[in-house]
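ugh ok so i messed up the first submission bc i forgot one of the chains. this is the corrected input, ALL of the components this time, i swear. 693 residues overall. if the numbers dont match what u have on ur side tell me asap before i send this to the collaborators (the ones from the other lab, u know who)
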Amino acid sequence: MNLHEFQAKELLKKYNVPVQDGIAVDNVMAAEEAYRQIKTQTNNNFAVIKAQIHAGGRGKGKIVGTEQRGVAVAKNAEDAANIAKNILGGTLVTVQTGPAGKKVNKIFVAQDVYYPGPNPVKEFYLSILLDRAKGQNVIMYSTEGGVDIEEVAHKTPEKIFKEWVHPSGGLLPFQARKIAFNFGLTGEAFKNCVKFVTNLYNAYLGLECSMLEINPLFKTSDDKIIAVDCKMNLDDNALMRHSDLAALRDITEEDPTEVEAGQYNLNFVKLDGNVGCMVNGAGLAMATMDMIKLSGGEPANFLDVGGTANAQTVEAGFKIIMKDPNVKAILINIFGGIVRCDRVAAGVIEAYNKLGNINIPIIVRLQGTNAAEAKKLIDESGLKVQSAIELSEAADLVKKAVA
Amino acid sequence: MSVLVNKSSRVLVQGFTGTEGTFHATQMIEYGTNVVGGVTPNKGGTTHLDKPVFNTVADAVKATQANVSIIFVPPAFAADAIMEAAEAGIELVICITEGIPVQDMVKVKNYLQGSKTRLIGPNCPGVITAGEAKIGIMPGFIFKPGKIGIVSKSGTLTYEAADQIVKAGLGISTAIGIGGDPIIGTPTVEAVKLLMNDPETEGIVMIGEIGGSMEADAARWIKENAKKPVVGFIAGQTAPAGRRMGHAGAIIGGAEDTAAAKMKIMSECGIHVVASPADIGKTMAAALKK
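and heres the new structure output, hopefully the right one now
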């Protein structure tokens, strides 16, 4: 599950991780008021206004139809109001959102961290994630902060450092010191960085993140170390023991059909193609999408109906897939093991009759337990449903349907 | 011959009396698997499906000499169940449970370092040696005995592959469902090694997915050590980057864990890579004739 920057920062504060603080608002008046509060707090006329969406690249991204960037500096209350007006309700397109962009419902009015002081400011990069191959958490960091880290990794891999955390010892003090030394920090900044990294790792573990990225990790002119931006993903499997975190889910950031599918306990991902599919099992579902592509179509979705493919799940699956006007055909691919194919077939027929107005080709491939009986049921149902038993037959039927 | 499990495997079911445990234990017993008992805390001393129930894995091992355990415990308690089995000296632990938090698995992986316990899964369909023992949730009848081994991250796709292999007249030695989570006990390369060293297995089907580097690691090992043909398929050629496709581990994180990248490395390492999942059976049949 993804969180917004303002949500992630609230959580980090509970773990004593210093952040660029601010106030999240959803209307222009509140934005002006937030600006005034921030101004009083920081004794600084500048404040930063940041669009809150689940995607990066906001600073360079623009609100559709305007020159307004997703991150902007306000110099006074009027300025803050204008920026808020431009961003709120607009659609922000960044390199990560794709051309459709994302609607902005909230902005974060935040402290300006580039205030003048005795020492130069510096931007670093630091993220914590899982190293799947080692089965350990790893801290990845670089002196090149505030920029696209994938580009740094590609062009100058020597500037990326990694520190693996052994599960039995946890993050050890020497490791946190090593990170601060590699950033080239000394004095107060060094001490603050060691504390920052230690507390950040505790947050990563405590919140059960699957990824926690601070970019930039910022050294202020008075040697504080703070998180200016924060991207936090939580482990979906761990949310069962963090009901407070589960409540932070923002469904307006998700595809509405995906949200609806979730309510039926269907595992659904919306794609851009023209052939819908409904499959039991995640691996077979991906393989079915691949087969659709090889047959000349484009998959319109990923849909795993799980182990119990019955009339209810099939009906829900039909409804979800048919919300997409681009869908020109639907392939149902069920490998019946424990679940019997004839029962799935009966489910398909029941759902089809109940929905009534299906006027695109439906291809049903049922293989496994009672596959022959299932094919007979489909063929004799009188419905405009094509049946197949072998996967290659199903592929041929898809080919004909999209031709 | 076969790998990991056979007729003499003495199987314990953890989470025995629950709905899933009961259903699948019944199916395993019907298949002929030697289920010697089960574990459900606070139900020790009772019997279930005519087998003894124990409070702890250690008690069960003492009484039954079980050497394999299969876990149907809910996600929040599954990591604990794996470690309990390892502590009791179980040699092979097969964890079916889907949805275990990843930090729990970091702990498990570390706990099992240096222990003699092998973990298969989690989030897997289990292991079946055709005609001998089914320790998992797969439909047993599809797996007709024969000479092809299967290693797979996915459940139904394993059934699909097995069905094609059987219809190609080849049959299955052992099928190993390694699981679709980011951290699993036995990575692809280790499962492939077992089958490569099994004299009764003449060919290997390796089924992977987007995400992680396990297939590439296995491919490099196969390049140096192949003694028999390997047919490979990677699910998710059409999956978008950054989206989790059902399995917790099936997510494209970078340029190297896409299906295309994995298929390229596998081809370069001499694996017969199929683009369509419908071609697994016939490709293996052709590869064996060469």
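quick check: Chain B has nine helices and 14 strands. that seems consistent at least. The domain at 138-288 of chain B is CATH 3.40.50.261 (Rossmann fold).
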